[in-house]
Amino acid sequence: SYFVPIVVGVSFLTFIVWTIFGPDPAYIFAFVNAIAVLIIACPCALGLATPMSVMVGIGKGAQSGILIKNAESLETLPKVNVLVVDKTGTLTEGKPSVEKVFASTNYNESEVLQFLASVNAHSEHPLGKATVDEAKKKNIDLLETKDFHNETGKGVHANVSGNKIYVGTLRLLEAFNIPISEKTKNAALIEQQHGKTVSYIAKNNEVIGFVVMSDALKSTTKKAIKALQNRNIEVHMLTGDNKNTAQSIANQVGITHFKAEVLPEDKYRYIERLQKNGNIVAMAGDGINDAPALAQSNIGIAMGTGTDVAIESAGLTLVKGDIYDIKRALELGDKTMKNIKQNLFFALVYNALGVPIAAGVLYPLFGLLLSPMLAAVAMSFSSVSVITNALRLKNAKLD
Q1: I need a labelling partner for 44 at 20 to 30 A (CA). Which of 205, 240, 329, 387 fits?
Q2: How far, CA to CA in Å, does 55 sit from each of 301, 315, 382?
Q3: Which ranges constitute the DSSP H helices of the chain?
Q4: Interval 181-232: pLDDT, tens
């Protein structure tokens, strides 16, 4: 909006000045120099400066296992000052396994696991699949299940062999007014304080036990959180798990801001509040429940090992599901934006130097003029410089 009108104006001014003050044939000098100004200022380099860097940056990201959906995501990365992360599948491996099954007095572990796995056979949650795998491992047959329902962020329930079975968090029990004994609650609390995930199981209106599951932290999680905090990025953890488990995980990885027992809409609203406070927020998650938050954030980061819905909602996908790649993606964003600024400098400095010479400012002192052919060569050289500089991004190191 500024560059083109100014250059066209300079070209007209060049023509007028040479017509009035130029030697004979004045109109020939005026016409040739006006054309030279237009040619040397042709905004090819200016037009290439941004898209070339973006294209090479996105390609570099793909080589490094970081899929960037659009240029806007790449531009937003360096501005991020808050990262919100899910726990399961993001900080942890997302491959939970059953550690133990706790049964109340009137039941044994096999019975509890049978009811548990029968309901979870219809669930897509990793925790549910872990219980089904455990039942198969112990050769426990699954019972006929009807009327399966998923209570988002709380748990599931269904009719199993004529009994109403509930599997999930304390919130699920509270939602259906199912009482729980202090003995069971305290036994679960001990496990949660060690960072374990607990799912209660109730039959009709009675809690008959719970299952203890563990999900190991990813090997790079602690290093990634530390690296992000060293970049002055505030890391927040949101999880549907209980407070004690969340506290244990947060302590292990060095996160001070966390919120437990959150529903998908809670994650969405949490990010909205951060944005209203002037933060540029990135959200990293892998599940269906994370999709609304990923879409609301300034830039959504999906784990490539997660669900298709999460990946579709995000602007950036980490193919290997390695949270440390977030730090590498931020570095790529920094280097790409720096490269774009260098390209714009190259494009504009050529024009700033070339346009006055093409207009003939050196003629009164040195008798030098820039022919349109030489102006075209100079213009091409500026484009080559921009392209060459953009290609340097291919060799950028993302530590």
Answers
A1: 329
A2: 19, 15, 19
A3: 3-21, 26-40, 44-63, 71-76, 109-120, 126-137, 170-175, 182-192, 221-230, 243-253, 264-276, 291-296, 308-313, 324-359, 363-366, 372-391
A4: 888 888 998 888 888 888 999 998 899 999 998 888 899 999 999 999 999 9
List the catalytic residue out of 86, 215, 286, 290. Answer: 86
CA atoms of 281 and 59, how far apart (whole Å)? 24
Task: Tell me the pLDDT band of 311, cut-offs 50, 70 and 90.
Answer: confident
| pLDDT digit string, tens, across residues 112-142 | 999 999 998 888 777 888 889 999 999 999 9
How much is the average pLDDT of 315-335?
Answer: 93
Residue 211's contacts (CB-CB under 8 Å, 6 or more residues apart) are: 98, 100, 101, 102, 112, 113, 116, 131, 198, 199, 201
- Provide the terminal-to-terminal Cα distance of the chain, rounded to the nearest Å: 39
Measured over the CA atoms of residue 304, residue 263, residue 81 and residue 71, the dihedral's sign is positive
User: Is the predicted pLDDT of residue 276 greater than 80, yes or no?
Assistant: yes
Cα separation, 100 vs 78, whole angstroms:
44
Cα dist. 41→4, 6, 16, 32, 90 in Å? 9, 10, 18, 14, 50
Q: Is the pTM of this model over 0.90?
A: no
Write out the two tokens for 362.
Answer: 């050196």
**What would the pLDDT profile of 237-259 be if each residue is shown by its tens digit?**
998 888 888 888 999 999 999 99
| 320: DSSP letter | T
Query: What whole-number distance in Å separates Cα of residue 286 and Cα of residue 308?
Result: 9
Strand order in the sheet with 145-151: 97-103, 206-214, 197-203, 163-168, 155-160, 145-151
